[in-house]
Specification:
The chain is α/β, with parallel strands linked by helices. It has six helices and five strands. A three-stranded parallel beta sheet has the order 3-4-5, covered by helices on one side. A two-stranded parallel ribbon has the order 1-2.
Amino acid sequence: RHQRSRRCRLFVCAVQGDEQDAIREQLAEHKCVPVFLDEDTMDTYYNGFCNSVLWPLFHYVQDVLDTNPLQKQWAAYERANQAFCDELMPRLSEGDTVWVHDYHLMLLPRMLKSKMPSLRVGWFLHTPFPTSEVFRMLPMRESLMQGLLGADLLGFHTSQYRPRPLPRPLPRPL
């Protein structure tokens, strides 16, 4: 017997009060759910850690890694990933499948699996994964890798984008 899909998509938004209800209603018509972040978290997460730290690192532009605001950006990255987890968990049932996309949500697979181990979680990267030498430059590399290892499946846009060798330790072959 085929069970109907309960598919939904999450979108991140930085809007205030009154606008949130209207956005929530508009997105619901398309089976989408907003994840609301305050402006500071949104800016520090997206423009800070994602686009000023991870994007350059994943594209081998190491000279732009500014460690001065790194801890604040990392805290925003953790908050944003947790906000996605908090918004998603009430919509999930045992055994559901969740696809997570890109370096913006590297912590999410482990967060989801820690709350509901029966979930099937996949993570897909649309950009090249840096070599272990480059990835090692990132102080929070272990936390990011542990986040990814919460996924049951890691997918890469092309075979050339897959890390070689895969970062260790891996709990099982992928």
